[in-house]
From TrEMBL:
UniProt biased composition (Basic residues): 189-208
Name of the molecule in the record: rRNA-processing protein UTP23 homolog
GO cellular component: small-subunit processome
Region feature Disordered, mapped onto this chain: 176-225
One Pfam family linked to the record: Fcf1
Biased composition (Basic and acidic residues): 209-221
Chain ranges of the UTP23 sensor motif region domain: 189-208
Record carries keyword DNA-binding: no
Key words, A-Z: Nucleus, Ribosome biogenesis, rRNA processing
Principal cellular location given in the protein's record: nucleus
Function: Involved in rRNA-processing and ribosome biogenesis.
Length: 243
């Protein structure tokens, strides 16, 4: 079971490495809900999550996430202590803190240029992350960390973004190839061959068949007709027998 889980994680992480330029050490953006769940399930984030993701991590948070936890009171003080361990990335809301889930979303932008992995138990934030391209989602299922499989949006974007090359980049590459005659040669030759190829061959076959057929058949018919022609004396005999 464990090996299967690690293979899954590797597969998902490789998807982001190959299609969206993720590199070690991965940056994991953690919020208070994740710390709270980890504490309740006795999961040591800084031990378990790097082991699960099989590599060095930078666990990070934002000032807004910390302030939100502070405002939620003493019940969450344990989770707050965990969250405060992590370096704070600038979110642009300094002095004017906003809701943590919105703050984390603002850190991701449209296409997650800083390659964050989002670690959160917040359902709304999770749903919003699933609608973004190239954002891995990490959460705890009980004690078990889960890196969710890439969302449909990300998979579809990856199809148009093979090997980190965008569609427009691929188009310019194809244009350059055309200008240098690399593509045009390859494309024109088979077309010309196709046009020239089938016609003469088909004509030859038809000619052979038609010529042979006519000659042989006509010859056979003539021969057969000649054979069928019965000499007169034989006819007489045959007629005599019949009559
Ligand atoms: Zn913020």
């Amino acid at each position: 079971m464990k090996i299967k889980r690690y293979k899954k994680v590797n597969k998902h992480l490789n998807f982001y490495v190959n299609n969206f330029g993720f590199r070690h050490p991965y940056q994991v953006l953690v919020d208070g809900t994740f710390c709270f769940a980890a504490l309740n399930n006795k999961v040591n984030i800084s031990d378990n999550i790097p082991r699960y993701l099989q590599g060095e991590l930078k666990l990070l948070t934002t000032q807004c996430a910390v302030i939100e936890m502070e405002n939620l009171g003493s019940k969450l003080s344990g989770a707050l202590i965990v969250l405060k361990q992590y370096p704070v990335h600038k979110c642009g809301h300094e002095g004017k803190p906003i809701v943590a889930s919105k703050c984390l979303l603002s850190m991701l932008g449209n296409c997650n240029p800083n390659h964050y992995i989002v670690a959160s138990q917040d359902r709304d934030l999770q749903n919003n992350v699933r609608n973004l391209v190239g954002v891995p989602l990490l959460y705890l299922h009980g004690k078990t960390p889960v890196l969710e499989q890439p969302s449909k949006v990300s998979v579809e974007a990856a199809k148009d973004n093979l090997g980190g090359i965008s569609m427009s980049e691929r188009q310019t590459i194809e244009k350059l190839k055309l200008e240098n005659g690399m593509v045009s040669d390859n494309r024109d030759k088979p077309k010309k061959k196709k046009k020239k190829g089938p016609n003469p061959l088909s004509c030859k076959k038809k000619k052979k068949q038609s010529v042979e057929g006519k000659v042989v058949k006509s010859g056979d018919r003539k021969v057969k007709r000649q054979k069928v022609r019965i000499p007169e004396h034989v006819r007489e005999v045959l007629f005599n027998k019949k009559t």
